[in-house]
Structure of Trehalose operon repressor:
Amino acid sequence: MQRKYVAIYDELASKIDKKEWVAYSMLPSENELADMYQTSRETVRKALNLLSQNGYIQKIQGKGSMILDVNKFSFPVSGIVSFKELAKNLQLTSKTTVINLEYIAKGHSVYNQLENEDYRIWGTTRVREIQGEKIILDKDYFTEEYVPILSETICKESIYEYIENELGLSIGFAQKEITVEEPTNEDKALLDIEGFSTIVVIKSLVYLDDASLFQYTESRHRPDKFRFVDFARRIK
């Protein structure tokens, strides 16, 4: 016999999948759900925990359970895709706002990341907006040995497009590290992350075809909006 909380979970998940509740609206309270299903709050709590674990809701302290958008954007972990390309491929309405664009002072840790003390490094911070929500914070750093400091207009459009089409460079591969971290004050100020206690961070070292290291990037994503995907093959 199916446990009561699993049956409640199945029914609530089905309603969310069918969009009977609008994404980012609040579920009924624990007391209301307990009355609705004629059960205890403890049973309801178990069902809500399952919903949270499977990405259907986000529990917000003092407010209740917020329904998440189950239609997440697939972000290819193993590929090197610009934000402009991602938005175009997924047919999403997008916007980029350049927060800053500047040379980085000597002594900054990014000089160690890029293993470069001979050339100046410049960086730009950009907020990525998808479907009207600010959900990605990109912090990119480039060495002037390969990429001169670019204009705000180019940074707003596509840096990779300029590098490949105007500078004639061929981007080869990247080494990536994915972590889950607490949002910084900068994240909270620039992104729409109220109610979220984590940020997914992808740190990448990006190389040209000849293995020259030219970019370090830190891309900070709101966790409910992305599904990070990869293709793996077993090699014996």
Remarks:
- The chain has a mean pLDDT of 88.
- The chain has two domains: 4-67, 73-229.
- Residues 13 and 54 are 9 Å apart (CA to CA).
